[in-house]
Known about the structure:
Layout: H1 5-26, H2 34-45, E1 49-53, H3 60-71, E2 75-79, H4 86-90, E3 91-96, E4 101-106, E5 113-117, H5 124-136, E6 138-141, E7 144-147, E8 153-158, H6 171-174, E9 177-182, H7 188-201, H8 214-224, H9 231-244, E10 250-252, H10 256-272, H11 280-291, E11 296-297, H12 307-317
Parallel strand pairs: 1-8, 1-9, 2-5, 5-8
Antiparallel strand pairs: 3-4, 6-7, 10-11
Amino acid sequence: MPQDMQAIHEKVQQQSQFVDKILAETGKVIVGQRRMLERILIGILSNGHILIEGVPGLAKTMTVRTISDCIRTRFQRIQFTPDLLPADLIGTLIFDQRTGAFTPRLGPIFANLVLADEINRASPKTQSALLEAMQEYQVTLEGETHKLTEPFIVIATQNPIEYEGTFPLPEAQLDRFIMKLSVGYPTADQELVILQRRRERKTEAFDLQPVTNAETLLEMRRAIEEVYLDKDIERYIVALTTRTRVHRSVAVGSSPRGTLALLKLSRARAAMQGRSYVLPDDIKQFAYPALVHRLILEPDLWTVRKAADDVIQEILSHTEVPVIKRTG
């Protein structure tokens, strides 16, 4: 256990106040999606990329744009289409007739928060152009490397019911996303609130106030690195991911990136709740979003909806949960 636990606890609590303000501000726009908002913020604080799945019209794009407005970061939305080229994403070299030299024209990926809308509509060649940026936080143009500005987060969306003319993401790229979220329909009461707010607002525009900025976000990430993780919690995380590799219904289990994802997400959730230590419940809360897209099921289960969810639920129920004594 770290010796200066009180100082770490105070630092984490101070940073968690920004999260509460962001949730309050985004709640002015987004109705009935607080859990998704919290998870997106936790993913951002974990320095991870996020994949959001849901049918059109569920405010996926608006949610990401709203969060970007509240954090005051440079935002870019890229609409992925079959004719989108890698150069449209990362940029290209332009010949300058005045100097007789080629100069780089950087693409829209050079932003803090990039929304890859309907990512599965672009060709695999264009999708792969994201790989270097998502993993190495850099882009290579004609042999020259250009670093991306921190923070750099890719939030991608895809439609789970319309597959005509789409290109499913390869496993190597899916593994780069720290988690996958599914968005559902609002309840009838929540939809009434949406109508009432639109009627009272009398415009499509929203008046949002920036809560924090990129520099503060990076400070929050540094504070999260101080969150304590008990050895038994570490073993619990490893037990969950390793069991995905030997489950009878799984052809290929989670990679070590899944293990690291659970580590980072659980730490961020603890800090978001003002805690300087991780609890087993933090792990359970993110077992599904962190692991579900990393499992390749046996062929006879490919057509079974929720099959991966059932596998994770079975693993959770059969893995012993550690008992952690609070010491600070």
